[in-house]
Amino acid sequence: MLENLAGYYVYAELVKTGKVYIRADQIDRTNWLDHYNGVLNILRDGIETDYVQHLFVTLDFGTGDPVDVVDISLNTYYFNLIMWYHIIALDDERIQPKHLIISDNITKKTIKKFIDDYFITPRKTKYSNRILNNVISDAIYRFVDIDIFSLYLANTLNLEDTIELMNASPEYDQIIHVDLSNEPLDNMKNKGMEYVKKAKEIIANAEAIMGHEHCLRNPFAASDGINDKQYKDNSINIGTKPDGQGSIYHERINTSYITGGLKNILYYYIDSASARVAQIISKENVGDSGEFARIVGLNNENMFLHRDPHYDCGTNNYLHQFIPNKDILNILVGRYYRLDRMSPLREITENDTWLIGKTILLRSPIFCNSHAHGHGVCYKCYGKLAYTNNDINIGRIASELITAQHTQKSCLLNMY
What we know:
The chain is α+β, with helices and mostly antiparallel strands.
């Protein structure tokens, strides 16, 4: 089966001997495609075999430190090759140990963080958006090749895995058949979500319990593809439903869809009525919030960035910004601040966790002296995101980001 040795490039040695030594720091844009196609062809020819599934590549990052010589599986190496294209595409950097991604749960957040940290952030002040976007597009496009293995990788949702796990785990069986008939109505949703958490923990370890992974293991691990609330209704307990008037129906549905579900007319009415009410509320709120979004957008569409990225308006007016947690700190990464009026101007980084719990003096577009005189927001007041947003309308994009959250929250508040 693995006979296309000429198509495996230097990885023909891996097929023949089970071992191959690769200098990661010597992979560059002139030979990257050969490395990629070599690995892809091996996977094409034998991904379903135990032999290929247990192949490992020895990577030496060329630092001289034995710690930076590692063995990784072929499928992990394949993913890293795609991501490493960002590093070597512009011929301005070599692959380093920090660029190695080893994780059981590769998600869109993993990919975005890698591109942000190791590609965009170091280069956004040196290259245009067009160049950066072209590299990202060329790299991410390679993920379409995974479709070659779609039939092999298919992991369909099924009840067989759930039944097998119930038979192997009495605790999981009890969760699936949980009785919340004595739970206060106003706490049924929270109690149901507690059981969801327990069920997810058991599913994560299903391989040790029943000998193979549960079909929901990957979407739960990646926190993508399966909504916890929908899983609760489907597999654990439907509970209560909103009546669209700020309250809930006073009849509980003490089953899930797979353990009885809508087994009488009343339950069917409650379930279908709440869905209809949600549609009506959403339509009304989207209309109202759409009008608000239009007004905010028109009010801010004349904001723009100063033409000179090196210009500093030198404003003495700062926004007093309290940083309560890591989430707020991450939002402010790339912005400029002072600890007090006498301290130097600094850039906020994701490593500045010592700022959590402090109030800083933050440079802000609302206090930009250049903007006040009609010359556009300077890059110091806007932050380093200016290098990314310098070819779009910054007022319009800010309005859309803010009003999109308003639309979603107004709908959810009225529905629940």
